[in-house]
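step 3/5: co-fold with NAP
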Amino acid sequence: MAEPQPVIFPLQGRRVWIAGDRGMVGSALTRRLARERCQMLSVGRGEVDLRRQVDVERWIAANAPEVVFVAAATVGGILANDTRPAEFLYDNLMIAGNIVEAQKGAILAALSITDELFDAREAGEDLAGSMKRLSAEIRPWLPPAKRKD
Ligand SMILES: NC(=O)c1ccc[n+]([C@@H]2O[C@H](COP(=O)([O-])OP(=O)(O)OC[C@H]3O[C@@H](n4cnc5c(N)ncnc54)[C@H](OP(=O)(O)O)[C@@H]3O)[C@@H](O)[C@H]2O)c1
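step 4/5: write tokens
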């Protein structure tokens, strides 16, 4: 059986936004994240056109997502990509650029979450250190057969 993978970025309790959550990739992500006990945020294209920076900034400021998955894009088959390359390039650069730009505040929040993780690891190391010291202190009290001198 496969070993359980360590969780490097817990989503539990976080505000998570999947941009493009009604699309093929976004809806699959939404189904998967339902198991994570995070708070899912959603907005449709009718409310926010992700190519428009002002709309994106306003929505992000009002909803403060902490984690963003970008699954929004203008997509199409080979023919569409071949015949409308500038539209695909423009839409997808704007969508990704606007979200990254407006998300700076959330990136700072993510950095503070990372700090929390490092603090937790350091606290774990401190605890391990004090347990070792305690063990060294009580070792002389153990019967000789149990000592690991
Ligand atoms: N499908 C795959 O097998 C696959 C595999 C790997 C990677 N990807 C990548 O994943 C991304 C999504 O692909 P997909 O197949 O899931 O596409 P999709 O089914 O067409 O979904 C795209 C989503 O983006 C939203 N969207 C597009 N333009 C928008 C805009 N201007 N403002 C707001 N929302 C907008 C759409 O909203 P509406 O529903 O309102 O149109 C839809 O929800 C693409 O970058 C694609 O290259 C896809």
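step 5/5: annotate
The CA atoms of residues 34 and 100 lie 24 Å apart.
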